[in-house]
Amino acid sequence: MSKKLTILDIAELSGVGKSTVSRFFNNGYVSGSSREKIQKVIEEHGYAPNLFARGIKAKNNKFIGVIVPCLDSATTSTILMKLDNKLRECGYIPLIINTNHNIDVEIANLDNLWRLNVEGIIILATQVTSEHKSFVKSGKLPVLFVGQYCSNGYSIVNDEVKAGRKMGKRVLKSHPKNILYIGVDESDTMVGKNRRDAVFKVLMEDKLINIEEIKSDFSLETTEKLLDSYLRLKKPDLIISATDNMALGAIKAIQKHGFKIPEDISISGFGGYKVSDIITPRLTTVKFDNERAGELAAESIIKLINGEEVSKIQKIDFKFLDRESIK
């Protein structure tokens, strides 16, 4: 046959009913003679069943939806690698959807994955909206948030408060007079608010420090442009970037203006990306355990699927990497 064989074709060629062929592929009861006929047709025509199509129709199909904001982030890729490995070790198959930071696409795919009959959903969310909470409240299937806190759901988050305080205390040791904080919008609660507020709470203990803030969008390019404009008018003693990626953009702008790090301007970040260890000077930063976050996400969603107890909030620890980019 030149066309792709269907279950109906197999039934006709083997002389059995379509329901018999369906039971054959779904491990139901089929008599010995019928099984031999079906197997013979399959071997003669090299038929390969569409396992994905069969799987999404079945209950307990072992598919887990994973929604991510991007695929080019060091944090996302590290979490995904560990998440993927752990799920597959446990016999589950991740269906990964990239939203390109489009919150509408993220929300739409909650329902899309539910219609595909996945057993659970993991979201590496950039923010948690009322639509997210409504979907969780519907109880359609287990949902786990990674990187953001959902008040009525299950969440795995970085210990932002502890990390922010640690960074603030290290910064104060260098005795800066003027500090610039490069943050992100507060719609990202964990980074834009919790991380930022924890840093500021410590810095404000020194009443003589002047603190200014500009907001970027996580990208290296935008941060470089923003700081380039800022440095035309002012020069801070120290810059705190909400992420390592933004710190790299800031470093480009600092070098463009001819300033030296840390002699003229000190700088720090959050993330602990590998590149922060190979640039000169090495970046002082917070390294969150993203590998553990990926493993824990896989373990937790499987527990939720199986009806086992899971803590509503699980916090990921970090290492503080005190390097040469701060005096």
TrEMBL record:
Top-level taxon of the source organism: Bacteria
Entry annotated with the keyword Transcription regulation: yes
Entry annotated with the keyword Transcription: yes
A Pfam short name: Peripla_BP_1
Signal sequence interval, chain numbering: none
Residue ranges annotated for the HTH lacI-type domain, each copy included: 5-58
Keywords noted in UniProt: DNA-binding, Transcription, Transcription regulation
Molecular function, one GO term: DNA binding
SUPFAM superfamilies: lambda repressor-like DNA-binding domains (SSF47413), Periplasmic binding protein-like I (SSF53822)
Protein name: LacI family DNA-binding transcriptional regulator
